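Q: Predict the assembly, please.
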Amino acid sequence: MNRFSPYSFGLAVLVVILLALLPLYGSPYTVILVTSIIMYAALTVSWVMFSGPTGNVSLAPAAFMGMGIYTAASLGKFLPLPLVIVVGAAASLLLALLVGALTLRLKGLYFSIFTFGLVLLLRQLVLWYEVTFTHTRGRFVVVIDNTTIFYVMLAIFVVLLVTAYLLRRSKYGAALEAIGEDEEAAAHAGVNVTAIKTIIFGVSALFMGATGAIMATKWTYIDPYIAFDPFFSFMPVLMAVFGGMATFVGPIIGAAVFGLLEELLLTQFPFYYMLMFGIILVVAITYLPNGLTGLVMKWKKGGRTANHANP
Amino acid sequence: MIVAILDVVVAGLLLGGIYALISVGLSLQYGVARVFNVAHGEFMMLGALSTWTLNQAFGMNPIFAMAICGPIAFVIGYVLHRTLFKRLRRISPSIGAFEGSSMLASFGLLFIIQNVANLIWGTQTKAYTFMTYPVSIFGALFAANRLVTLAFAVAFGIVFYLFLARTRLGKAIRAAAQDPSTAALMGVNINQVLALCFGFGALMAGLGGLLVSMSYPMQTTMGLEYTIITIIVVALGGMGSIPGSFIGGFSLGLIGSIVTKIEPGLSLAAYYLLFMLLLWIKPTGIMGK
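A: Predicted assembly structure:
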C-alpha cells in the first residue's frame, strides 16, 4: 500500500469534494456528526503515522489534543482562528519533541505508560495552575459556527492525509518502517533512530494539537478534566486496532464506525457504550490482529493463492 | 515539630503498606506472566466495593470479607489468564508483541470492569466505618483501621514471600519468571503456573482494595490512580522482586505523604517526576537485575 492507484486517488478526491459540499445538502445535525467523525479519523490517522510502523503504542493523544484545547481556550479571545490553530499545533509539537527526546529511548511498554501518565500529569498540573493562580476551574471558549468548524476540521484532515501519504513514501517513512522491523539493525544501517522517531512523533502530535484547537470551539466550556480526558488516548488506538493499520482506509473506517456508535449510544447509555468499547477492544485484539481491513485483505489474498495452488 | 514529622512519616508508612501489597500483585503479573495489567487497579476497586456491599447488606466485618473476596478475585484472574491471555500468548509472534497486545487487552478489561461496576454500584462515593477510634503512636494520633491495614499488608507480603521461597509451586513460579521455555522443558506446566500468577496478582489487588476500603471512601473510578502508582512502585522496586515492591511502596508512600503535606495538588506530579528520574538513572529498578 505504498502507492495509490489512480482509482483510489480519484475516489479520495471525490469523497473530499462530496464532504466539502455537505453543508449545502446535509442537515446541521449531519454536519456536526460528520465533524466529530472527521475529528476521530484525524486523531487515528495521526496516531497510526507514528505508532503503526514502530509498534510503540503511544497513549499521549489526549495530552496533545488537550494542549490544542487549552491554547484555543486561553488565546481564542485575542488571536484570529487560523493563528490559534497554528499556535495550538506548535505547542503540541514542542511538547512531543520534548517528550520524544526524553522517552523514545525507553523500552516499548515504559513508553506507553509514560505517555499515558503524561495525560494525567498535565491534567493535574493545569488544574493546580488554574486553582492556584487564576482561581477558576474551567474556561469559556469563543464559539464559532458549526459550518466553519466543519471546514477547518476537513482542511486539517486533508493536509494530514497528504502529509501522512508523502511521509510514508519518503525516506523518513522508510526509516521508520525499518525501525519498527528491527531497531538495532536500523541503527547499524545508519538510521538515526531517536531523531527519526522523535520527529515523526512530533508531526503526529502537531495534527492532534490542531484538531484539539478547532474542536475546543465546539464545546464552549472546558476544564482540565474535559481537555485532558484519557478517553481521547484510547479512542485512536481502538479505532486503529479495529480498522487495521496497514492502509489509510482502515483507521478511517474505524473512526466512522465508532463515531457513529458514540453518537447513537454515548448520551443515553454511557456505561453500556463504554462497556461495549472495552469488549470490542478485547475481541478485536484477540480475534482480528490485523483489523477489519486485514481480514478483507486476508480473504482476498486467500482467494488469489487458491487459484495458484501449491503455495 | 517532632509530632508533625512523625505524623507525616507514619502516615506515609501506612499508605506505603497498601502500595506495597498491590505492587507485589502487578510485579507478579508482569514479572512472570508478562502481562502489563493496566486493569490492576480495577481489581482493587472490585475488592473495595464488594466489601462495602457485604458490610452494608450483612453487616459483615471486613476482616471476614477477606475469605470471600480473596478467592473470588483469584478465580477471576485465573480464568482470565486461562482464556484471554493464554490465547494472546499463542497467537503473538514474539514476547514483545505479546506484551503490547496483552496491555491493550487489559485496557479493554479496564473499561469492561469499570462500567460493569458503574452499572452495579453507580458513580456515587461510598464509605463505611470500621475501627475508627484513635490510637496514639509517640504522640501522633491514627485511626486503628489504618494500623490494621498496615499489619495485614505486611503479613500478606511476608506469607507470599515465604510461599515463593519455600514451596515447590513457588520454585516453579520463580523458574517460569527466569525462563519460561526452559522451565517448561524441565516439566513445569507453564500455562498453569502463569495462570496461577495472574490469579495471585488479582488476589493481591482484591485484598489491597479491601484494606483500602477500611479507611478510605471509594468509588468506581478509584482504580486508575492506584494503577499508575502501582506501575511507578514496580518500576522503582524492580519487576518481579517482592522486597523491591515493599521498598518501592514504602518510599512512594513516604514521598506522597510529604508532598501532600506541602502542596496536596501536586502529589501525582511528584510521583511522576520520580518515575522520570528513575527511568533515566536505573531503568531496571532498585532491586532489578
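Residues 28 and 197 of chain B are 6 Å apart (CA to CA). Chain B has a mean pLDDT of 85.
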